[in-house]
């Protein structure tokens, strides 16, 4: 394992368990590529990525290129003499990068490819009401998330599970699958399988996972209780599904369903101003349990109602 030279590429918290488990398995991580430090917070001080913080703790060599085609970066990457590159939640790589190591570049993706290719697979699986998802390891090629599949593992989505909760489970399951993939590739036990583009009848049935937007996050109360509930779960804790309350943005992080024919129009709300606040959908209500009004901090519905004047 020490003879196998691996370059790891990743940025957010989702990537950390994968790098950790590769180190625990005693693989030789010769370099870590992550995003440049970015200004954040009120003071706009430079913030390190989750992967950079972890890599610093472990004393690993770190590269933070602004541009992946920068000749200086490419020269330094080549000098690491990697046999394999591993990518977990990084960014799209140019061919000159992913095609560099002799054993290729392995990617971990948080869906059962070819379903939910794109930037936000965990969110979209919940938004669309899926009961199952999974993690996939595959070989990188030209088009994003289209490479030949190496290994997959299915994961059941809990009925009330949020994107944040599923993310925390998937990063651990994915890390184990990644280590297994590297091990079996080294042993020559893995045959990659091209991604299927259609179902048995030859009809394309692919669901996509594009980047989340403000348009995605705004609640449409004319939809069913289940659809709205899934949107709230799928966007919690970030970026948060929102509606308007007296012209101010109100983010909803946690809620419950009430299937009963509403007596008010979709989008209207009912409250006793003490214990409950619920919005009408087309076939029931969403009872809010945790929320955040624009410019305020996150509160339980009881805390919010104590201080809010309707």
Q: What is the number of strand segments?
A: 15
Classified by CATH, the class of the largest domain is Alpha Beta
CATH topology of the largest domain: Rossmann fold
CATH architecture designation of the largest domain:
3-Layer(aba) Sandwich
- Backbone shape: elongated
* Radius of gyration based on Cα positions: 22 Å
Please give the alpha-carbon distance between the first and last residues.
64 Å
Mean pLDDT, to the nearest integer, reads: 94
Topology order in helix (H) and strand (E) letters:
EHEEEHEHEHEHEEHHHEEEEEEH
Instruction: Estimate what percentage of residues fall within beta strands.
Output: 25-35%
Number of helices: 9
> pLDDT under 50 segments (min length 5)?
none
What's the domain count? 2
Q: Estimate percent helicity.
A: 25-40%
Computed structural class = alpha/beta
Query: Looking across the biggest beta sheet, what order are the strands in?
Result: 5-2-1-6-7-8-9
Largest sheet properties: 7 strands, mixed
